[in-house]
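Hey,
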Amino acid sequence: IKVEVLVEIATMHGGNPIKLRQFLTGGNEYSAQRQNTPFLEQTDRGEFNRLQFCQKVCEEGNFILDINAFETIFTKYLKPFTETLCLAKKLANRYKVVGISNGGELEVKKVTEIVSPIKFLGVVYSWQLGCKKPDKRMWRRACGIAEVCHQEAVFVDDIPEYVEVWKQMGGYGICFNATK
């Protein structure tokens, strides 16, 4: 989805969407496999800050856009997973809930606006921790925030592979995909 959004931004601003797509995908269609490209993976792990991300996308796509305009346009395309957030809100009324996000800094800005009404104890962001789910450090940080061990915690995600890794750690996992 991010690749398509970034290519659309390049197109809208007179850039070179073909060159940008090639850079973002490395010539492969990662997005079709629901995997991030190497550049987007690095961004999600915090190896590039918001400004560097914007500059690199503009450079590779041959267009000029200041960071404020870029952020506004990019985050407008991000759609919240309404059903998942409704579930999190209901759970937060009765249980300790910690969010875990694999998004880069720009996505987090948008997600924070959306989830602020939810009573999370905290949110673990991949770009701050320098790793992404299914890296066990993400869950360890979340359990630390909630002050529970992983055997006492339930992990809910829409990616079956992430849930399986969590279960292998001894936790209870639920694959929740509101779109199916």
